[in-house]
Amino acid sequence: MELRQLEYLVAVAELANFTRAAERLHVAQPAVSAQIRKLERELGQPLLDRSTRTVRLTAAGEAVLPHAKAALASVGNVTRAVDELTDLVSGSVAIGTVTAHDVDVAGLLADFHAAHPGVEITLSTDNSDVLIDRLRSGALDAAIVSMGTDERPEGLDVDVVTDEAIDAAVSLDDALAGTTTIELAELAQRSLIALPAGTGLRSRLDHAFAAAGLSAHVAFEASTPIALAELAERGLGVAIVPSSVARTRPALHAVTITPAMRGRLVLAARSTGRSARPPQSCCRWHGVSSVSAGVNRVRA
């Protein structure tokens, strides 16, 4: 899935016309059609109803649209945050990130480095626990990490990127496909598909089971929520994934976990004395301009 595909989908949805969307995007109309069809093939579901002169979203398109808009808004906010770093002319900045999000952080930082070649920018990926340790030790200036809604990491300032429920997701022929909720005790009897230990979602899962005096049987691990969803679609178990993943894939059935679990994606930097701020809306990079505050630790 590419950001330009989401951009094309949003434009067509807003203008209800491929030609006008292409004019707004300054691309050829066939390119818009081709990219949206590619996205539909990837998702396995038509997103647009082309049967009339006015193009309309299908039910799947209506489900995807808010997430597409949120992803594009995130990129815009990250771009603006990087643009704010124009006063840096030399030094180095170290940024870390978990892998499970759609923002092309590496590309954005590469663009900034091209404009400011005197600043050396390094980007590394790891699980949230490792990234937080590296922030506290000073090895990183800022990091995108996952954590629970009740977590307040000592010594760090955070700006919330996303805050959403964590769901169970199963294939459409799974016994759970006819249910809407599942208790932790029942979930403990199933083979689970989860992120590796030390990652944010996995920590939420392990903490919830420990609090209930239960043990989770994790049969499969994968590095991203999308990979977990793909394993669940093939009937290999119950995937523990963000609600935005569980509820937007046509081949999955989402089940609400009781008691509820939630997870956040945040931009963290060593503390400057300010407090965490909630997101203006789910999946928006509210406050991401604090990258500029984190980068004042530039090491000459």
Indicate the proportion of strand residues.
15-25%
Which stretches are poorly predicted, pLDDT < 50 over at least 5 residues? 274-300
Radius of gyration, CA atoms, in whole angstroms: 21 Å
Mean pLDDT: 81
Shape: flat
Order of secondary-structure elements: HHHEEHEHEHEEEHEHEHEHEH
Query: What characterizes the major β-sheet?
Result: 9 strands, mixed
Question: Could you say which structural class the secondary elements and strand pairing correspond to?
Answer: alpha/beta
- Distinct helical segment count: 11
Binned, the helix content reads 25-40%
**Tally of DSSP β-strands:** 11
**Whole-Å distance between the termini?**
38 Å
Features:
nine-stranded mixed β-sheet; 300 residues; two-stranded antiparallel sheet; disordered C terminus
Helix/strand layout:
Layout: H1 3-15, H2 18-25, H3 29-43, E1 48-49, E2 56-57, H4 59-83, E3 91-97, H5 105-115, E4 119-125, H6 128-137, E5 142-147, E6 156-171, E7 181-183, H7 184-187, E8 192-194, H8 200-211, E9 218-221, H9 225-233, E10 238-242, H10 243-246, E11 252-270, H11 290-294
Parallel strand pairs: 3-4, 3-5, 7-11, 8-9, 8-10
Antiparallel strand pairs: 1-2, 5-11, 6-10, 6-11
Helix pairs in contact: 1-2, 1-3, 1-4, 2-3, 4-5
Overall description:
By secondary structure, the chain is of the alpha/beta class. The protein contains eleven helices and eleven strands. The protein has helices spanning 3-15, 18-25, 29-43, 59-83, 105-115, 128-137, 184-187, 200-211, 225-233, 243-246, 290-294, and strands at 48-49, 56-57, 91-97, 119-125, 142-147, 156-171, 181-183, 192-194, 218-221, 238-242, 252-270. Strands 3, 4, 5, 6, 7, 8, 9, 10 and 11 form a nine-stranded mixed β-sheet that branches. A two-stranded antiparallel sheet has the order 1-2. Helix 5 links the parallel strand 3 (91-97) and strand 4. The longest helix is centred in the first third of the chain and has 25 residues, at 59-83. It is flat and about 60 Å long. The chain starts with a helix and ends in a 6-residue tail after the last helix. The model is unreliable at 274-300 (pLDDT under 50).
